[in-house]
Write a structure and sequence with these properties.
It is a single chain. The chain contains 14 helices and 22 strands. The strands form 4 sheets. Strands 5, 6, 7, 8, 9, 10, 11, 12, 13 and 16 form a 10-stranded mixed beta sheet that branches. Strands 2-3-1-4 form a 4-stranded antiparallel beta sheet. The longest helix has 18 residues, at about 205-220. About 25% of the residues lie in helices and about 25% in strands. It has 3 domains: about 90-300, Vaccinia Virus protein VP39 (Rossmann fold, 3-Layer(aba) Sandwich); about 310-370, no CATH class; about 395-455, Nuclear Transport Factor 2, Chain: A (Roll), CATH 3.10.450. A hairpin with a 5-residue loop joins strand 11 and strand 12. The chain has helices spanning about 5-10, 20-25, 50, 75-80, 95-100, 120-125, 140-155, 195-200, 205-220, 245-250, 320-325, 350-360, 380-385, 400-410; strands at about 35, 55, 65, 85, 110, 135, 160, 175-180, 225-235, 255-260, 270, 280, 290-300, 335-340, 340-345, 365, 370-375, 375-380, 395-400, 420-425, 430-435, 440-445. By secondary structure, the protein is an alpha+beta fold.
């Protein structure tokens, strides 16, 4: 791997930089593979280690593990069921930043501002309380679909997906308890994982990214509450995108830089901006992971209050609500609203907030879409199948590996069953999606755009 010499030269001034170790680790072609289990679907310790080929636990996160080798995730039905997320280990340190700065037992409104493809959003959802709400935003329209897909697979009912420029959140003054900005960056921390990123790296691009990071932070700042927490991160080594941004935050806003506790054996570097701010840098020759940088600030100024003027939501009829309620457990905990043609179940605690977000933002998905009513019966959405609110009495068919992969490819299935009507296809007791059993044939309702193409 040929590293840009201008990058090497720019890193020489960073105190903890080791040029020889940096070049050696990038010359090593060994890949570090890590996954994070979904606690909504797999209890920690309650999984088949021979399937996952686990090597060791990632020390700074609850549900993350290193793998001995990289399997074909595409051909694992549990991946499609949302049992786990394939995520780079260093970035899972976000859990520590949250745990050490926020009371996670309280109901929180959290904004993941630059969320696609969804790694940090699924992590955030796993550590906030069930009474909290996560808003996952992605400004690039082409990337919203994968964010929505990954959050649907995760199965939670307390997430909202939006597609807005950061500046559109400025009108939501003092609304959020936590603002996570995993900022678009020059990507040098991912060179080992993505060699193509090297071709796009340049000193000019670093400067452009630095300016974009400042704009994103300035545009969204007012939506964070006083005493709320900003968590800023990048996958860049460049000081201009890391320590210099911390200094810029200190200079432009009233904040308190948060010092995080790190264990000595984690080998994470605590670094400081020129203003005394705290940041945490991950070098791949020190940690088992890729390049990463993260910092946390507490907001010490008031941006005013948002006035939630709510547009009355379109709601289903009582007859339609009765029809969908039997498909979910604890239906009394939810309000039912129309999202386009679909009926969605929304937590009663957050109904007004979600309605307000729908009025002010481009909401692409909220809570759990259940489906549409036709002839007094529900045509269920795929999101209902993968959700954790699905009623346990729904008829299901357990598939073996071959049948599960055929289902995920939208191939024809042959299953011996006297059941007629909707059925849940499962693998290892985890839902994969819907089938409709019609006696002499089975209709496969797996989403066409999600189907496996690999043989």
């Amino acid at each position: 791997m040929h590293l840009p010499q201008s990058l090497i030269q720019s890193l020489q001034s960073i105190k903890s930089f080791d040029k020889n170790a940096f070049e050696q680790v990038h010359a090593n072609t060994e890949q570090v593979t890590s996954i994070r289990f979904n606690p909504l679907k797999i209890a920690d310790g309650n999984f088949k280690s021979e399937i996952y080929n686990l090597q060791s636990k990632i020390p700074w996160t609850t549900f993350g593990y290193y793998l001995q080798s990289r399997p074909s995730f595409t051909l694992d039905p549990l991946f499609h069921a949302g049992a786990y997320y394939v995520q780079e280990a260093s970035s899972m340190f976000l859990e520590q930043a949250m745990k050490q700065t926020v009371d996670l037992s309280q109901p929180l409104l959290v904004l993941d501002l630059c969320a696609a493809p969804g790694g940090k959003s699924t992590l955030l959802q796993s550590i906030i309380s069930n009474e909290s709400l996560l808003v996952s935003n992605e400004v690039i329209q082409s990337r919203v679909s994968i964010l929505k897909e990954n959050l649907i697979k995760w199965g939670s009912s307390n997430t909202v997906v939006t597609n807005n420029d950061p500046k559109e959140f400025s009108k939501l003054k003092s609304m959020f308890d936590v603002l996570v900005v995993d900022a678009p960056c020059s990507g040098s921390g991912l060179f080992r994982r993505d060699a193509e990123a090297i071709k796009e790296w340049s000193e000019d691009n670093v400067q452009l990214c630095c300016q974009r990071q400042q704009r994103i932070l300035a545009d969204a700042w007012d939506c964070l509450k006083e005493d709320g927490v900003l968590i800023y991160s990048t996958c860049s080594y460049s000081q201009e995108e890391d320590e210099d941004i911390l200094d810029w935050i200190e200079e432009n806003f009233q904040v308190k830089s948060e010092k995080l506790k790190i264990e000595d054996n984690w080998n994470i570097d605590e670094v400081h901006g020129s203003k005394g701010t705290f940041g945490y840098r991950f070098w791949p020759y020190k940690v088992k992971g890729e390049g990463f940088f993260i910092a946390a600030f507490r907001k010490k100024e008031d941006s005013g209050d948002v006035k939630m003027k709510i547009k009355t939501a379109m709601v289903p009829s009582k007859k339609e609500i009765a029809a969908v309620s039997k498909w979910i457990k604890e239906a009394d905990d939810f309000s039912f609203v129309l999202q386009g043609q679909n009926i969605a179940a929304v937590s009663k605690q957050w109904t007004e907030t979600i309605q307000f977000l729908m009025k002010e933002l481009k909401v692409r998905y909220a809570s759990v879409e259940l489906g549409t009513i036709a002839k007094d019966d529900l045509i269920p959405e795929h999101s209902l199948a993968l959700s954790t609110i699905l009623h346990p009495d729904i008829f299901s068919v357990e598939l073996n590996l071959e049948d599960a992969l055929n289902y995920l490819r939208k191939n024809e299935l042959k299953i011996n069953s006297v059941h007629k009507g909707w059925a849940l296809a499962t693998f290892d007791a985890l839902p994969l999606g819907w089938m409709k059993m019609l006696g002499n044939r089975i209709n496969n309702y797996y989403p066409r755009e999600w189907r496996i193409l690999m043989r």
